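ping. complex inputs:
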Amino acid sequence: MPNPPAPLTWLIARLSKLIATATGALEAGYPNGVGDWQQEVSRQLARYHGAAMLAGAEVDTLTPEMTTAVTTDLATQLRFLDKFALEMQDGDTWQAGWNSRANMYAGSIKTPYWQGNVDMLPLPAMPADGTSTCLTRCTCMWDVTKLAGEGNYDCTWLLGATDHCQICKQRAADWAPIRVRDGVVQ
Amino acid sequence: MGKSKVILPRKLSVNPQAMARAITNTMQSTALAIQTDFNVTTQTWDDKPTFAIESPTPYTRRVGTDDENYTRLNAGTKPHVIAPRPGGTLVFRTPFRSKTTPRRIGSSAGSKGGNVVFTRRPVHHPGAEARDFDKVIAEKWNRQFAGIMQRSIDSEVS
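pong. complex structure:
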C-alpha cells in the first residue's frame, strides 16, 4: 500500500503540533480560554486548508474555484469546531478525550489536499471528507491517471497503509477505477 | 431532497454544455457514492445483491436492487408463525446474530448459531426490524449533495 504524500504528512504534522499547543494551553487554564482557543484553531485551519490545496495541486496561488472549494471544506470543519467549543464551554472539568478530538482537526486538511491533487475532478468523495466511518483518520488516496484526449481520466481509490473502515474498503473495490471520459463521470 | 446552496460562476451559466456536464457529473458521482454505501451494507453477506444505477432521464439517477431478501430486510418484517410442512420437520439454528443493524451503513460477521434445532411444531418468528438502509443512505448523501455539485461546477470552470 502506498505511503501518504510527503507534503501532506508534513503539513498535518505541523498543524497537529499547533493545535496540540493551543489545546495544551487551554487545558492548563480551563474552563477559561475556550473562545481564544477556538479562534486560534480556526485561524490555523484556514491557513492550512489553503496550504493543503496549494500543495495538492502543486501551484503557488489559489484559483477562485480552489478558494471556493477550500472555503466549503473549511466551513464544514468550523461548524464541527463550533459544536466542540460549545461542549467545552458547557463543561466544568477537562475531558480525557478532548485532546485527541482536537487533534483530529489536523486530519481534515487531507480533503483540500486531494481535491487539489485530482485536478478538481468531480469525484464522489475525497479522503477524510467525513463520508466514511474513519472520518479525518482516513489515510486513503486518489490515484488519477490522465489519459489521451481532453477530459479523460481513470481515478482509483487506494487504501492507506493503516487500518481502514468498511466504507473505504468498498470504495477501493468499487472505484477501481472510476472512469471520466470527455469530462463526464461514467 | 433538502435545500442546497451552490456558487454558480458566470462563465458556467453562459455555457450550456458545461452546465449540462456539471449536472450530469453531480448526479453520477452521487449515485456512485450511494451505490458503494449500499454495497457496504452487504459486504459480509455470502449472497450479495447487485445494486444498479439507472438513468431514466439524463439528469436522474436511480440506485437500487430487485433482490427480495434485501428489500424485505430493508423494510422489515412483522412477527409471524413458521409451520413445518404436513408431516415434516423444521430445522433451524440458534442463537442467530444478524449481520446488519437498523440505520447503520455497515455489516458485520454475524452468526447463524451453533445449536441445531429440530421441531415438528410451528415456531413464532419475531420478525426483522426495518434496517432503513435506503433512508439512512439518502439522508447522508442529501447532506453531501451541495458539496458534490459545487465540485462539479468548480471542475467545469477550473
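The first strand of chain B starts at residue 52 and ends at 54.
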